[in-house]
Amino acid sequence: MTAHEIVIRPIITEKSMGAIGFKKYTFEVARNATKIDIARAVEELFKVKVAKVNTLHVRGHLRRQGRTQGYTAAWKKAVVSLTEDSKPIEFFEGMM
Predict the structure, then answer these.
(1) Which domains are assigned to the chain?
(2) Which NCBIfam families match (predicted)?
(3) Largest CB tally within 10 Å, which of 7, 35, 48, 49?
(4) SS3 string of 20-82?
(5) Residue 70, strand partner residues
C-alpha cells in the first residue's frame, strides 16, 4: 500500500486540535494498516519524525431514517505523536 492509501484524511475536532500543541495529530487510516505502516506513511507524506502511534477502531453508529435503520461504516483512527525535535505538520498549522 502507498502512503496515500494508508492515511485517508485528517480528523478535525476540538479535542484533536487541542492536542496539536503537544505534537499529536489524528488521522483516519486504512483498517488493515499497522502502527509501523502508519508511522512510515506519515513520515513520508509530511517529512516529520514519528515517536509513537496509538490506534483505535471506531465502531459504526446506529442511524435511523423513518422506519429503516442501519449502521454507519466502522473505521480506524490513529493518533500520531511526533518527536520533540521534529517540525510540526504545516497542514494543521493553518487551522489554529
Answers:
(1) 3-62+72-84 (3.30.70.330)
(2) PRK05738.2-4
(3) 7
(4) HHHCEEEEEECCCCCHHHHHHHHHHHHCCCEEEEEEEEECCCEEEECCEEEECCCEEEEEEEE
(5) 63
A 10 A CB-CB count for 27 gives 22
DSSP 84: T
Neighbours of 54 (CB within 10 A): 13
Q: What radius of gyration do the chain's Cα atoms show?
A: 15
Per-residue pLDDT for the chain (96 aa), expressed as one digit of tens each? 899 999 999 999 999 999 999 999 999 999 999 999 999 999 999 999 999 999 999 999 999 999 999 999 999 999 999 999 998 888 877 766
Single pTM value for the model: 0.88
